[in-house]
Amino acid sequence: MAVDGGPGGAADGITGGAAGGRTGDGAVGGPEGAASAVRGDAARGGPSDGAFIELDRVEKVFDVRRRTGFLKRERRRVRAVDDLSFTVARGETVGYIGPNGAGKSTTIKMLTGILTPSGGRLRVAGIEPSRERTRLAQRIGVVFGQRTTLWWDLPLVDSYRLMHRMYRIPDARYRANLDRLVEHLDLGPLLDTPVRQLSLGQRMRGDIAAALLHDPEVLYLDEPTIGLDVISKARVRDFLRELRDERGTTVLLTTHDLQDIEQLCSRVMVIDHGRLMYDGPLAGLHEAGESERILVVDLDRELPPVDAPAPARVVKVEGPRQWLAFPSSVSAAPLVARIAAEYPLVDLSVREPDIEAVIARMYAGQGNRAASRPPTSIA
Amino acid sequence: MGAGRLYPAVAVGGFRRYATYRAATAAGVFTNTVFGLILVYTYLALWDEKPHLGGYDQAQAVTYVWLGQALYSTLALQGGGVEKELMARIRTGEIAVDLYRPADLQLWWLASDMGRAVFQILGRGVVPFVFGALVFDMAVPDDPFAWAAFAVALLPAMVVSFGIRYLAALSVFWLMDGTGVSQAVMVLGIFCSGMVLPLNAFPGVLGDIVRALPWAAQLQMPADVLLGRTAPVAAYAFQAAWAVALLAAGRLVQAAATRRVVVQGG
Ligand SMILES: Nc1ncnc2c1ncn2[C@@H]1O[C@H](COP(=O)(O)OP(=O)(O)OP(=O)(O)O)[C@@H](O)[C@H]1O
Ligand SMILES: [Mg+2]
């Protein structure tokens, strides 16, 4: 059933740092139309030195059978992950983003070993996950934001006791870890509550603790902030930041929330249609996508569009409120200063582009390449 | 430490989970008692017509009825143990979470179902049986060894019950929906386990067949052990053979299902 794992046709893209060399800041490489990855300046060096997670031309093809009529079936192949190569060093925190159906969850499932790649080479801590799933399980932690690993009907602490046995955690270490996680994730009052009575945010914190009791070297988080309110998100992020800084756990995080990435990840990978589109720092992503931020100014009365210095421009006027678009890579400060000096400014705010918009632009901007700009964004 | 402590912990969890469903347990006790009454009066009428049907006298037939009601949920004779949950997890893809854990899927669910079964003996079995014993004339042995032999027979009965339902649940990997399979499990369970009529009373070839099927290991064997109708060792051998066969089949199907998931994503 597995699809032949030979290398695909066109070998395009500058995915391997060593193979393709590094492109400059925000420069978009690759031939027109080819889904080639763009590497920012945080890109790693060669693929194997010290790499903890290593993917080399990994593919995952699903056979989807659909009934199209009486006894008629249609077979379709979905290329969920396509020629994906990247490495993650020990201790790195990497954001893994892309639109719905891009292949993020599929990648994480392959990294945990519950899906075998259709082609390519994949190693985590030197282990091939799908072959040695159980051995690897001792070293990884996973949180699927949309699913829970906790026992629905039982108090939270019962799930933890089960983890204790399942991962064969020595008693002293289990107690120490549980105490620490309960304190940092504020789970104390929830331990005796049945999981089904927990709120989404509480359950998510419970799940994160469950994934960390056995001191995994790497933590995969598949949308850990999905559906959480602002306060719960902040809590989860604070905790993950601590985890990164104090324990040096390698973290791979998928999300649709750009703020997760901004606050946690020094590096971000963008995937779309199963292909790596970008790999580098977040700032560079904005440049690669030529994304724009929006400055919203409230003047004290209705005025004609403000005279903004290029490349900023007014995109909308509504009464005393005006919207100005300017490149994400450029500081907002001079623009704000100028408007404040020349116009009766009452209030202002800056809107960051959302990640889907950035990716959409990146796609659009593949052919007409962006000029290299120094990363001066203030954000 | 070690896996030796994981599965007991899972079983304890299974026990405690079912213990939390208090209202369902109370409702179940009531239902089993009412059904027991209906069946007892039906049996008494039937045994008046055909004394010694299936080799049971009236007191033994009544005992058989209350044993059936007492073991009905423990042995999940019509389904309704952990397989429902397993089916749901397969259908929704949550089974993926179970797969990456360093635990054996079959042992995990077996342990969980054992915990459930033990709870349901206490929670749902004892009351209807005691009720029956107080109200009707029953052939309850006062020999503690008979009770011990009966208790031993319950263990493989539970494993056989699990083995059937585990296979049914795994079929959802291919069928994508457990409704039809659950119905098949229910119908087969009602008929073949002897819930309606003791398997001993089934006539001719039909009787020979149902008494050889794994369902016979569930209610009929423990009942016959308690009623002194069969030598315990023979019953145990029959039950153990089916338990081993079903668990082995479960492992094979599980391996195929796992392969399917890791290649095809479910
Ligand atoms: N088991 C499967 N069988 C068939 N196709 C699948 C399977 N799992 C995923 N796919 C397909 O593979 C593609 C990638 O899916 P995946 O779940 O990895 O996306 P994702 O990036 O996690 O998206 P989202 O942001 O919506 O969670 C999609 O087109 C999806 O339909
Ligand atoms: Mg996903």
TrEMBL record, chain B:
<dbReference type="InterPro" id="IPR010390">
    <property type="entry name" value="ABC-2_transporter-like"/>
</dbReference>
<feature type="transmembrane region" description="Helical">
    <location>
        <begin position="121"/>
        <end position="140"/>
    </location>
</feature>
<feature type="transmembrane region" description="Helical">
    <location>
        <begin position="64"/>
        <end position="82"/>
    </location>
</feature>
<dbReference type="Pfam" id="PF06182">
    <property type="entry name" value="ABC2_membrane_6"/>
</dbReference>
<feature type="transmembrane region" description="Helical">
    <location>
        <begin position="21"/>
        <end position="44"/>
    </location>
</feature>
<keyword id="KW-0812">Transmembrane</keyword>
<feature type="transmembrane region" description="Helical">
    <location>
        <begin position="226"/>
        <end position="250"/>
    </location>
</feature>
<protein>
    <submittedName>
        <fullName>ABC-2 family transporter protein</fullName>
    </submittedName>
</protein>
<keyword id="KW-0472">Membrane</keyword>
<keyword id="KW-1133">Transmembrane helix</keyword>
<feature type="transmembrane region" description="Helical">
    <location>
        <begin position="146"/>
        <end position="173"/>
    </location>
</feature>
<feature type="transmembrane region" description="Helical">
    <location>
        <begin position="185"/>
        <end position="206"/>
    </location>
</feature>
